Amino acid sequence: MPQQTTDWRPPGPRGLPVLGSTLDFQRDPFTFRTKVARTYGPVASFDVLTETFYLLTGPEHIERVLVHENEKFIKGDIFQTLLSPVVGQGLLTSEGEQWRKQRHRIQPAFRPDALTHYADIMVEETEEELATWNPGEVRNLHEDMLALTGEIVARSLFGVDVSDRTEVVAEALDVVMGYAESLSSSMVPNWVPTPGKRRFDEAMAILDAVVDDIIEERRADPGDDVISALLAAEDEDGRTMSDDQLRDEVMTLFLAGHETTALSLSFTLFVLAQHPDIEERLVTELDDTLDGATPTVADLGDLPYLERVVKESMRLYPPVHAIIREPTEDVVFDGYRVPAGSPISMPQWTVHRDPAHYDDPMAFRPDRWTDEFEAELPRYAYFPFGGGPRRCIGDRFAMMEARLVLARILQAYHLELVSDPSLDLAASITTRPTSPIEMRVHER
Ligand code: HEM
């Protein structure tokens, strides 16, 4: 291996002495990473305090990390610091043999016939949610979407009704995600007892209690659900899963399984409210295909425009704005060296808005998603669900849910945006709106 020289470091802003690019990064991580990528190219670097970050935005580099050479990369320190306090060592955070074993055990919950059964739950829950909306009133959209997707995932995967707990869960989640955002931008180690940390601990206690209740409910009355399957799973030597492990898996599925989809729904309804022509086309497709009937999974194939709208919304507003990894050995990209143990960020936000892949990238244009366009698009120029072995286990669940819920809402209501038409977002673990998205609901 050649000697390391400064030339081996990918180009990037040098920023201020000591602080590097900390302030620019903290102020607006979305824009900062995009600017760095556009200025310095697909392999870049920047400093935040004492840490050098590597920014990969070329689809072929991202594919190498996530797919072809995935065995050289782990999720790494920053990912663990942000997520382990919340989801412990569940499917999202675990590595190696432990991860493989659990993925194998949980995968059956996402097989096609199970998904078909969840589709009915998704539509039923949406109808229950809509029954609480009154024409003319203003709703906090994202709060409603969180409650809805929380109920959907709990009923689908765990067979449990959490409708009486969705409000406390949403509040606790807000504290937890706000804390993760402050942690990622301030880099205060999480053992420092700040006021934020105390609120975080209280919020986690609430989430833990909800998850414990869910598990107890299933332990008392096992059924055909993922918790009962995990409770029954045994090692080769006959050992069952520890209570802590089970808690981590249930917390992971519950949180990863609803916050992201709620964001995708909120963002989609937000952009539709600002594009009446696109909303009208979508409603026409729904009317022509469903003729007022409740959508089912069998209808989804006949609703191509609906799918394009969801895809385009996840392009411009990816619920997960960046994937992070750490190489376990030195890796070279385009002649630049990324040392073992360094954080690598692969931001969907930046890649999905790259004019090299998308014409007029800032425009919301569902029509761009033709078969020809998709066939030509580099594979990792669009990766809202990640890729490779660690790809989202709930990708089809989420795509089905987003389409069914949207279809049902748009059949019943037109939503008028009454809050700020510009969206202020925070880069937490997910892409989160910093103020309520308020919508006045009008009966169709
Ligand atoms: C629009 C909705 C969703 C988006 C954008 C999304 C995005 C992602 C992404 C990007 C990853 C990969 C993270 C990484 O590589 O570091 C991931 C992993 C994961 N997602 Fe999702 N997700 C969504 C919905 C769901 C749903 C509905 C579930 C479960 C019901 C779920 C459960 C998980 C789990 C358990 C993992 C970890 C998988 C593993 O490492 O084996 N997600 N998701």
Summary?
With 444 residues, the protein is an alpha+beta fold.
Question: What distinguishing features does this structure have?
Answer:
444 residues, alpha+beta, Cytochrome p450, three-stranded antiparallel beta sheet, 17 helices, binds protoporphyrin IX containing FE
Itemize the secondary structure elements and their pairings:
Elements: H1 22-27, H2 29-40, E1 43-48, E2 51-56, H3 59-68, E3 73-74, H4 76-87, H5 96-106, H6 112-131, E4 138-140, H7 141-158, H8 166-186, H9 195-220, H10 226-232, H11 243-256, H12 259-273, H13 276-290, H14 304-316, E5 323-327, E6 331-333, E7 336-338, E8 344-346, H15 348-351, H16 371-376, H17 395-412, E9 413-417, E10 425-427, E11 431-433, E12 438-443
Parallel strand pairs: 2-8
Antiparallel strand pairs: 1-2, 3-5, 4-12, 5-8, 6-7, 9-12, 10-11
Helix pairs in contact: 4-8, 6-7, 6-17, 7-8, 7-12, 8-9, 9-11, 12-14, 12-17
This protein binds protoporphyrin IX containing FE.
Description:
- The protein is of the alpha+beta class.
- It has a single domain (6-443), classed as Cytochrome P450 (Cytochrome p450), CATH 1.10.630.
- 51% of the residues lie in helices and 11% in strands.
- It has 17 helices and 12 strands.
- The protein has helices spanning 22-27, 29-40, 59-68, 76-87, 96-106, 112-131, 141-158, 166-186, 195-220, 226-232, 243-256, 259-273, 276-290, 304-316, 348-351, 371-376, 395-412; strands at residues 43-48, 51-56, 73-74, 138-140, 323-327, 331-333, 336-338, 344-346, 413-417, 425-427, 431-433, 438-443.
- The strands form 4 sheets. It has a 5-stranded mixed sheet. A 3-stranded antiparallel sheet has the order 4-12-9.
- Helix 7 packs across helix 8 and helix 7 runs antiparallel to helix 12.
- The longest helix has 26 residues, at 195-220.
- It starts with 21 loop residues before the first helix and ends with a strand.
- The mean pLDDT is 93.
- The structure holds protoporphyrin IX containing FE.
- Protoporphyrin IX containing FE binds at residues 75, 91-92, 103, 153, 252-253, 256-257, 260-261, 264, 319-320, 323, 384-386, 390, 392-394, 397-398.
